[in-house]
Specification:
alpha+beta; Band7/mec-2_domain; transmembrane helix; four-stranded antiparallel β-sheet; SPFH domain-containing protein; Band_7/SPFH_dom_sf; rod-shaped; Stomatin_HflK_fam
């Protein structure tokens, strides 16, 4: 009885082991390659799968998602014989499990080597400046070549990116010097353009200021000329009025010849005043033969008599007497016409 129980337990254990080896659960986005007696049999999809234990063997589990592989820096020579180190990143995806397993030993290593060789070919046809500025073109050419070459391996290359392009240290120093020279040149150009613009603006400002000054001076001269013209007009009008008034006074006052002769003699010294007067001319009849000289003498004598009478009237007033003008001699002419 005990032996039968042991046999049953052993049989159940064998059945459980066979069942465990027969069940295969594959995760999502992954596939298993199954070989039977060392030969490809089938591919297990995601989910629950059953295989024959001790007959079917899982060769490899392959991830069907997009993979990213960063390759170490690769040395390349440009068309102008300059060495650069290029670091690339490849995005790929397995599209055929059978081809990726049996047509290439290690598809990751194959992609890396293929990318390195293609990169050297592409960069070898460009100079350093194009290499540094044409990353998109290099990416497109690399992706096209890799995608075509890896299609028979069951791999799809979706993108290729250049992470870094590093020239050698000597080239970097030369590039830095060139960039510094370009920056200095650009700064000098900008400074020269600024000075040019400043000079133009300054010249325009000076021109405008000169025009405004000229306009102001012209307007000032015009106003001054108008003022002088008006002043001369008023002065001439005043002199004309004064002459008219003098003329009227002369004709209406009925001045005697003796007074006019006396005033004439008083004005003669004023004519000779001034440093600029080097020569002055008097009438030729200024001597005692002048026709007005007797009249003048007579007027001067009358003035002397009047002055003496005024002094005498001052003394008479001191004695309480009223001064009396001295009588004129017979035939003596009066000094003013009002005394006639």
């Amino acid at each position: 009885m005990l032996t039968a129980v042991v046999i049953v337990l052993v049989f159940v254990a064998i059945l459980l082991a066979i069942a465990f080896r027969s069940i295969r659960i594959v995760p999502q986005a992954e596939q298993d390659v199954v070989e039977r007696f060392g030969r490809y049999h089938r591919t297990l999809k995601s989910g629950f799968n059953i295989v024959v234990p001790f007959v079917d063997a899982i060769r490899e589990r392959i991830d069907m998602r997009d993979q990213v592989v960063s390759f170490p820096p690769q040395s390349a020579i440009t068309q102008d014989n300059l060495a650069v180190n290029v670091e690339t990143v490849v995005y790929y995806r397995v599209t055929n499990v059978y081809d990726a397993t049996y047509k290439v030993a290690n598809f990751i290593t194959a992609v890396e080597q293929l990318a390195s060789a293609t990169l050297r070919n592409v960069i070898g046809g460009m100079d350093l400046e194009d290499t540094l500025t044409s990353r998109d073109q290099i990416n497109r050419e690399l992706r096209s070549v890799l995608d075509e070459a890896t299609a028979e391996w069951g791999i799809k290359v979706s993108r290729v990116e250049l992470k870094a392009i590093d020239p050698s240290e000597s080239i970097q120093e030369a590039m830095e010097k060139q960039m510094r020279a370009n920056r200095d040149k650009r700064a000098e150009i900008l400074r020269a353009e600024g000075e040019k613009a400043s000079a133009i603006l300054r010249a325009e400002g000076e021109q405008s200021a000169a025009v405004l000054r000229a306009k102001g001076a012209a307007e000032a001269e015009t106003v001054q000329a108008k003022a002088e013209s008006e002043a001369m007009t008023l002065r001439a009008r005043g002199e004309a009025d004064a002459i008219a008034m003098v003329f009227k006074a002369l004709h209406s006052g009925q001045l005697s010849k003796e007074l006019l002769a006396y005033q004439y003699l008083q004005k003669l010294p004023q004519i000779a005043q001034g440093d600029a007067n080097k020569l002055w001319i008097v009438p030729s009849d200024m001597g005692s033969n002048a026709p007005w000289w007797p009249t003048m003498q007579e007027g001067m004598e009358n003035l002397a008599d009047i002055a003496e009478s005024v002094r005498g009237s001052g003394a008479g007033q001191s004695q309480g007497r009223t001064p009396v003008a001295p009588p004129r001699e017979e035939g003596e002419r009066p000094l003013y016409r009002d005394e006639e």
